[in-house]
Specification:
178 residues; 25% helix; alpha+beta; 7-stranded antiparallel β-sheet; 37% strand
């Protein structure tokens, strides 16, 4: 019995400390954390996460249905049209952006050929009928490399040799969804 107690205590300790180390690995990356640069903007969502996720998934489904199963998006940094396949909508990265009265969700896509992965951010607002509508779509990361960070809910470019010259000066061309 004593051995079982010791084994359980050690196991609980390992799980506890591994969760702490994972949380410390990416400080300030997610909404609601206090850090100068956050990965995603906003506060906790006012609508339920389920409502926002449903809105994003519905938008992606509509766009892919009319585009033969792919989500088209223009990559302004690399100057090319992408043909993407949805991998995942991050249900833990849903936010409300108070100053814009908008909602935000993060997704993962792969290129149609599977050679590259993209973290795509979607911003939504309620339309006149009270339905969520995507009004901005932006490539946040390619293959894990961020193109921008959020500082107080504002987009701040990440300096990189992969960025277009106009982005190094702080000007970013808006990416429109299809």
């Amino acid at each position: 019995m004593k051995k079982l107690f010791i084994v359980l205590t050690v196991l609980i300790g390992v799980v506890y400390f591994s969760r702490l180390s994972l949380a410390a690995e990416h400080p300030g990356e997610h909404p609601g954390e206090k850090a100068e640069h956050k990965e995603h903007p906003g506060e906790k969502a006012m609508l339920s996460a389920e409502q926002i996720i449903k809105g994003i998934k519905g938008h992606i489904q509509k766009v892919t249905e009319v585009n033969n199963g792919v989500f088209p998006l223009y990559d302004s940094v690399e100057g090319k049209n992408l043909r993407l396949k949805l991998v995942k909508v991050h249900e833990d990265r849903v936010s409300y952006i108070k100053k814009d009265d908008a909602y935000f969700a993060c997704t993962d896509f792969k290129t149609e050929d599977g050679k590259a992965t993209y973290d795509i951010d979607f911003w939504m607002k309620k339309n006149a009928q009270g339905e969520l509508e995507v009004y901005k779509t932006k490539i946040h990361k390619k293959d894990g490399n961020p193109r921008f960070v959020y500082k107080e809910d504002e987009i701040v470019p990440v300096e990189s040799e992969h960025m277009a010259p106009e982005q190094h000066s702080g000007h970013m061309a808006p990416e429109q969804h299809s």
